[in-house]
Amino acid sequence: MLKGQHQYYVYILSNKMYGVLYIGMTNNLERRMIVHKNKLVEGFSKQYNLTKLMCFEQFQYVNDAIKREKQLKNWKRDWKIELIEEHNKDWHDLAIDWDF
């Protein structure tokens, strides 16, 4: 990544295959996954034990990421499941091997 460039991520978490889904946006996916996996913030993801990264998309511009996050949050559940399975058909935690 070039100096001055930013990366933004829209991501979907779950607690298990076909479980509860959570959509979020961040500029640091690793840091955000530390927060979710260690339940460092009170809220929906902590309440439902949403610690598994099911899929994510990367954006250069924050406005594009915000737009996509809003779009996904308005999608039907079936569409979200199709998106996950398009990229991660077995619902593996994509962050399981990350060094935290």
UniProtKB/TrEMBL annotation:
InterPro entries: GIY-YIG_endonuc, GIY-YIG_endonuc_sf, UPF0213_domain. Residues 6-82 form the GIY-YIG domain. CDD domains: GIY-YIG_unchar_3. Pfam families: GIY-YIG. PANTHER family: BSL5627 PROTEIN, UPF0213 PROTEIN YHBQ. Belongs to the UPF0213 family. This is GIY-YIG domain-containing protein. It comes from Croceibacter atlanticus (strain ATCC BAA-628 / JCM 21780 / CIP 108009 / IAM 15332 / KCTC 12090 / HTCC2559).
